[in-house]
């Protein structure tokens, strides 16, 4: 047994059961241990184990990507960030807060737009960001330059991440061919249910992006009979999005049969029937609670393309959404229409539902930019009440709009901030972070924000808006440094 083995055994069993001396350890470990101040046996053992662990880690050689040994760094072919911009980038990389990461993303995008590449000293940190699961990974690639790409080849984790980011893929993207092969494999049922559902979801994502293959429906129908509810639900969602699938046609025919129009007292109304009980329907997720027949009604309506309702009921989206629903089933019917509009990206139906119920993030994403702005401005001009619970909903709507925001949205956001009861100070932190990166950094917008801070008496709101204006100034300085 070696001296190190003796140390490890003593550390596991204790000195009483396995006495050992730290004197006489060989090599650099022994030299360091002998230089330590004298102590009792137990602390001396722990010191020796710690020194040995550090020595072993220091002696390890990181793996290299194949073919990278001996490669010489090429000359940089891009314009390297100047001293001020490089110092700004270094400072942003040192920050770990949400605003720091957001400003880093802004810096990376601005640098890429201007053809500026990062200095060599920060390339390892940027490559670590590119390899990480979160953060501005994809934004890193354009600023790496020739030397960054060369350095990425020296470590497999970096080179793999660079290849993924360049191709626009993430770790969550599964190859559709691999998913197809796994589902078709006779051993598919032996995999964990979560893995089976993930493979079906991967095939579903592929069907949304590209045309289906002839055997895709057969594979999904096989998954539809899986013993796990989560897998059956994933297969049902995929089949609904598979054009022409028998399952999708059955769902649509079943949904249309549940809704009809009737004339009541000189006006048209919609009469909605609940579907027959079907506790085993794969359209219902495993976590469905409450009235399952009502939930199934909503799921069937959501599985039906919106244009089929126009054909079936003989009216436009706005007319159908505005009609009275007999039987108190308007919530399920409209929720199903909303799901279908979002799934099929039907802007006409999304506009009709927003006009009736107000905007939500899913519907807002379907609308053209001009209609997004109009809906968001209208929502921001609704005065907040003392017990308003919709603040978080407004923040989610903000995230839908591309940046920088148009002037109309900036003015509406300032009005929303300073009108009505003050927002809690802790809530304003997140709002300030959003505004700081969503607004244009031009002097006019900065002045608009500072002006809004002077039209309120709430200390927290004043501090938030002044902070946002200061960040806009910093962003403008960043752009000047990159010029």
Largest sheet: 3 strands, mixed
Number of strands: 5
Low-confidence stretches: 169-173
Instruction: Determine the fraction of residues in helical runs and give it as a percent range.
Output: 55-70%
Count of separate DSSP helical elements: 26
Summarize model confidence as the mean pLDDT. 86
Which outline best applies? extended
InterPro entries: DUF5691
Quickly describe the structure.
This protein has 483 residues and is mainly α. 62% of the residues lie in helices and 4% in strands.
Structure description:
The protein has 483 residues and is mainly alpha-helical. It folds into five domains: 3-59, no CATH class; 82-167, no CATH class; 176-243, no CATH class; 248-357, no CATH class; 369-482. Helices cover 62% and strands 4% of the residues. The chain has helices at 3-13, 27-35, 41-59, 83-94, 98-113, 123-131, 137-140, 145-152, 156-167, 176-184, 193-209, 216-224, 229-240, 246-256, 292-302, 306-313, 317-322, 330-344, 347-357, 361-366, 369-380, 391-400, 407-418, 425-438, 443-453, 459-482, and strands at residues 79-80, 116-117, 259-264, 267-272, 324-326. Strand 3 (259-264) and strand 4 form a beta hairpin. The longest helix has 24 residues, at 459-482. Pfam families: DUF5691.
What's the helix and strand layout?
Layout: H1 3-13, H2 27-35, H3 41-59, E1 79-80, H4 83-94, H5 98-113, E2 116-117, H6 123-131, H7 137-140, H8 145-152, H9 156-167, H10 176-184, H11 193-209, H12 216-224, H13 229-240, H14 246-256, E3 259-264, E4 267-272, H15 292-302, H16 306-313, H17 317-322, E5 324-326, H18 330-344, H19 347-357, H20 361-366, H21 369-380, H22 391-400, H23 407-418, H24 425-438, H25 443-453, H26 459-482
Parallel strand pairs: 1-2, 4-5
Antiparallel strand pairs: 3-4
């Amino acid at each position: 047994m070696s001296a190190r083995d003796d140390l490890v055994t003593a550390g596991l069993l204790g000195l009483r059961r396995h006495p050992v001396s730290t004197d006489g350890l060989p090599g650099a470990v022994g030299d360091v241990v002998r230089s330590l101040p004298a102590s009792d046996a137990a602390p001396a053992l722990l010191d020796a184990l710690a020194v040995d662990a550090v020595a072993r880690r220091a002696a390890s050689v990181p793996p290299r990507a194949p073919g990278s040994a001996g490669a010489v760094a090429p000359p940089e072919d891009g314009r390297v960030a100047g001293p001020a911009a490089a110092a700004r980038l270094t400072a942003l990389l040192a920050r770990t807060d949400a605003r720091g990461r957001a400003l880093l993303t802004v810096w990376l995008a601005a640098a890429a737009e201007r053809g500026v590449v990062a200095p060599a000293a920060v390339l390892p940190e940027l490559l670590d960001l590119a390899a990480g699961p979160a953060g501005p990974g994809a934004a890193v690639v354009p600023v790496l330059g020739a030397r960054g790409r060369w350095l990425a080849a020296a470590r497999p984790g970096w080179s793999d991440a660079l290849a993924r980011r360049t191709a626009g893929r993430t770790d969550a993207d599964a190859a559709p061919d691999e998913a197809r092969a796994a589902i078709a494999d006779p051993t598919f049922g032996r995999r964990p249910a979560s893995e089976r559902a993930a493979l079906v979801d991967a095939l579903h994502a592929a069907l949304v992006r590209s045309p289906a293959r002839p055997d895709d429906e057969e594979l999904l129908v096989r998954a539809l009979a899986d013993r796990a509810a989560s897998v059956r639900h994933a297969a049902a969602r995929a089949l609904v999005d598979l054009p022409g699938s028998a399952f999708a046609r059955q769902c649509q025919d079943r949904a249309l049969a549940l809704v009809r129009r009737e004339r009541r007292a000189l006006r048209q109304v919609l009469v909605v029937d609940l579907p027959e009980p079907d506790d085993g329907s794969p359209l219902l997720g495993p976590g469905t609670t409450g009235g399952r027949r009502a939930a199934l009604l909503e799921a069937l309506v959501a599985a039906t393309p919106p244009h089929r309702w126009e054909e079936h009921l003989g009216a436009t989206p706005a007319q159908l959404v505005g009609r009275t629903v007999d039987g108190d089933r308007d919530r399920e019917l409209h929720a199903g229409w909303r799901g279908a509009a979002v799934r099929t990206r039907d802007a006409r139906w999304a506009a009709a539902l927003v006009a009736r119920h107000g905007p939500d993030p899913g519907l807002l994403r379907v609308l053209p930019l001009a209609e997004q702005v109009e809906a968001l401005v209208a929502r921001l001009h609704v005065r907040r009440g003392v017990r308003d619970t919709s603040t978080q909903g407004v923040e989610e709507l903000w995230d839908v709009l591309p940046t920088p925001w148009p002037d109309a949205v900036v003015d509406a956001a300032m009005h929303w901030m300073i009108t009505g009861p003050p927002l809690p100070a802790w809530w304003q932190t997140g709002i300030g972070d959003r505004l700081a990166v969503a607004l244009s950094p031009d002097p006019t917008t900065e002045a608009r924000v500072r002006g809004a801070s002077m039209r309120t008496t709430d200390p927290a709101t004043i501090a938030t808006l002044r902070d946002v204006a200061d960040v806009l100034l910093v962003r403008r300085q960043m752009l000047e440094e990159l010029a």
